[in-house]
Structures are given as C-alpha cells and as structure tokens.
C-alpha cells in the first residue's frame, strides 16, 4: 500500500439537527466535498424530545416537517453556491422500542448505507436539548466510525 496516495472522498455525510452548529458543520462538509469533487448527504437527526412529543401528540409533526424543510433549504443554498451535489434524509435518533437506537448509531448506520467516505458533525450545541441532539452523538461517532471524522 502506498502511503502517499491521495485520500479518495466521494460522499461526505453531514448529520444535522437544525442548530447553528450543524449549519456550520454543513459549511465544512461542503468545503470538503468541493475540494474532493464529492457530494454531501445531509442527515437530519430528530432528537428524543421531538420523537416522544410527536408520538404523544404534543409536538406537531407538520411543524417539525416544516422546520426540517426550511433548514434543508438553507443547506441547499450553501451546496448550490459551491456547485456541490446534495442529497438529504431525516431519521429518528431515538426509539422507545429499540434501546440501541441513539443518534450516534443512526449516524453510523446512515454512513454505511450511503457508503460515506467522510463524516462532518457538530461537536457541541448550546441550545434546546429537545431539538439539538448531535452533541450526544459526537463522542460515539468519533470512537466508532470507520471513516475519517471532522467534529466542528
């Protein structure tokens, strides 16, 4: 194996939660994708509070969908400015029935499904813990990812 071979990156996974920190992570993901002529996949991870609230009927699922769509519109603008291809998805970062389902696990499972070569995720958030969940995932992803990870 030649250690001087360049790193090949085709797909950058950027888990987001709607926070300002995850918007910053998108900017880094797009920059990396632009550098390597790669695409970005933005994964919106819904936190425990949102999932439980939607299941209980105390959080309006249409409001969550609207907020997610608006966040993705901003993500699309960032990717379009650099000409970086973008795909998106949304997943629950919590399940009341599956104890092993948590944000870190969802990120790594998605990375495997989309065959991500690189992961960029926010390290810490300072806002509402009901909606900003990726700080809980960062340590897990850093410890268990098989791809390079940039935590911003």
Largest sheet: 5 strands, parallel
Poorly predicted segments: none
Architecture per CATH nomenclature, i.e. the level-2 architecture: 3-Layer(aba) Sandwich
CATH secondary-structure class: Alpha Beta
Strand portion, in percent? 15-25%
What does this structure look like?
This protein is α/β, with parallel strands linked by helices. The protein has a single domain (11-151), classed as Rossmann fold. It is 47% helix and 18% strand. It contains 5 helices and 5 strands; from the N terminus they run E-H-E-H-H-E-H-E-H-E. It has a 5-stranded parallel beta sheet with strand order 3-2-1-4-5, with helices on both faces. Strand 4 (118-121), helix 5 and strand 5 (149-151) form a beta-alpha-beta unit. Helix 1 (20-36) runs parallel beside helix 3 (61-82) and helix 4 crosses helix 5 (134-144). The longest helix is centred in the middle third of the chain and has 22 residues, at 61-82. It is globular and about 50 Å long. The model has no long low-confidence stretch (mean pLDDT 88).
Search tags:
Rossmann fold, alpha/beta, 47% helix
Gist?
The protein is an alpha/beta fold and 152 residues long. The protein has helices at 20-36, 48-56, 61-82, 103-114, 134-144; strands spanning 11-16, 39-46, 86-92, 118-121, 149-151.
Record the SSE blueprint.
Elements: E1 11-16, H1 20-36, E2 39-46, H2 48-56, H3 61-82, E3 86-92, H4 103-114, E4 118-121, H5 134-144, E5 149-151
Helix pairs in contact: 1-3, 4-5
């Amino acid at each position: 194996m030649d250690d001087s071979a360049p790193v090949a990156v085709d797909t950058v996974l950027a888990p987001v939660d709607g926070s300002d920190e995850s918007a910053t992570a998108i900017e880094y993901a797009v920059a990396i994708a632009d550098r390597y002529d790669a695409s970005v996949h933005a994964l919106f991870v819904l936190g425990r509070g949102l999932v439980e609230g939607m299941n209980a009927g105390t959080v309006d699922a249409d409001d969550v969908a609207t907020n997610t769509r608006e966040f993705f519109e901003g993500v699309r603008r960032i990717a379009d400015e650099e000409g970086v291809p973008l795909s998106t998805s949304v997943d629950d970062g919590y399940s009341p029935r599956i104890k092993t389902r948590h944000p870190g696990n969802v990120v790594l499972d998605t990375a495997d499904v989309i065959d991500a070569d690189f992961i960029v995720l926010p390290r810490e958030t300072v806002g509402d813990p009901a909606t900003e969940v990726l700080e809980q995932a960062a340590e897990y992803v850093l410890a268990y990812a098989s791809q390079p990870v940039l935590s911003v």
